[in-house]
Write a structure and sequence with these properties.
With 224 residues, the chain is mainly α. The protein contains eight helices and no strands.
Length: 224
């Protein structure tokens, strides 16, 4: 049972949403999309994880992401910045990376908390926390017909979000810490792991292909 609950600070929440939405807007600009395409990518990247969380897993009425007008306003601001300053955004790469790393852990913990309060089992709560953290990026990649970055070998990203989600669950349920303290532990752990990943270039590796199935013709019908 959770002891209390934590809420994301408004400025932090909007800042993280801005950073995520900006990455979506830049992806659309890079591909030569028009304003509709750029706005759509910014929207799904900035709010996609939360929309999946509230609309698919935790169906409990209108999501706060659509009730509060500030979220849509921050998406529009991210699109405007992407269009006006896209060529110079690289100057703020470190700041964006910091906000992204903080947001990753915060959204993972927040998703776990909402899931537990809704009565989901711990494994399902961790799943929802991960979707809350990385769902927007997955939707962005799917809409642009790219393989989702979190599925490909590369720097630890989803794994750091997983660490944050598990840390929040263990601290709040197993150790019975307050929700605020559990969130601090989860965000700190995720942030440190993400910074170390970027600094030391920790990367995942492809799964070895020496399986019993050597080519597509040998795969059973349901596995193609």
């Amino acid at each position: 049972m959770l002891k209390g609950s934590f809420d994301l600070p408004v400025l932090f929440d909007l800042g993280a949403t801005f950073a995520f939405a900006l990455s979506g807007a830049l992806a659309g600009i890079k591909r030569g999309y028009d304003i509709v395409g750029v706005l759509a990518l910014a929207l799904v990247t900035g709010l996609g994880g939360g929309l999946i969380r509230d609309g698919l897993f935790l169906i409990s009425g209108p999501t706060p992401l659509l009730i509060n007008p500030h979220y849509i306003e921050i998406i529009l601001a991210a699109v405007a910045c992407g269009i006006l300053f896209g060529a110079r955004i690289h100057r703020f790469a470190r700041l964006i990376a910091v906000v992204d790393a903080l947001g990753l852990g915060a959204y993972a913990a927040f998703g776990v908390q909402k899931s537990l309060l809704a009565g989901l089992a711990p494994p399902a709560a961790i799943l929802v926390g991960l979707v809350n953290a990385v769902g927007g990026g997955i939707l962005r990649d799917l809409l642009t017909r790219e393989e989702p970055l979190v599925f490909r070998p590369g720097q630890f990203y989803l794994l750091t979000a997983l660490a944050g989600a598990v840390a929040f669950l263990c601290c709040s349920v197993t150790l019975e810490l307050s929700a605020n303290r559990s969130a601090i532990v989860a965000v700190t752990l995720t942030f440190v792991l993400r910074v170390l990943t970027i600094t030391l270039n920790w990367r995942t590796a492809p799964v070895a292909s020496g399986s019993i199935f050597e080519n597509d013709e040998e795969l059973p019908p349901g596995k193609r």
